[in-house]
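Assemble and predict.
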Amino acid sequence: MEALMPGIARWLHVIFGITWIGLLYYFNLVQMAALKDAGADGTAAGITKHVAPRALFYFRWAAVGTWLAGAWLLGPGFMDAFMLRNGYEGIGIGAWLGTIMLFNVWVLIWPNQQKILGMVPAADDVKAKARRVAMLASRTNMMLSIPMLFFMANGLSHRAALGL
Amino acid sequence: MKNPLESVAGTIISGLILTVVLVFFLKNFLVAGV
């Protein structure tokens, strides 16, 4: 059973990761454009009331699950990864990018989305600013996901390709 | 200059450029032990 633990950690890391990054891509590729069009024909409430809160729930908790399963998977190599040393330099860059993305989710995206969706009271000008910050944080995470996934795919099990 | 994160295409191109930059950093500064 002990030998199976890294496999279970990797499996959970992938399941949570697909949920997190899948929803991130949904927000950036589908929902942002859909909300623009829906706002024009008065149907945005269908998305902001019924879709976005559910998507954000799985999004933010999958981000936590991904990070925890990743930390479990790194195991004794956790410090080496975050210190970018001892053959863990590649996966370490991926881990740092994932950690920055987790920070963006909980510190920038989620608090601002709560204002945008009316979960916490906010004046119109505050909502407008929140919309801008949440959009840029979400786009930043989409940008960071590209190198993050490269280093997740190549940083540890295929690190010879990077000269590690 | 327009913020590349304003568009999906700009975001993806920025991500690809950042990937190349980070691989360069890894190979030349981390792996080389500088």
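Residues 39 and 131 of chain A are 14 Å apart (CA to CA).
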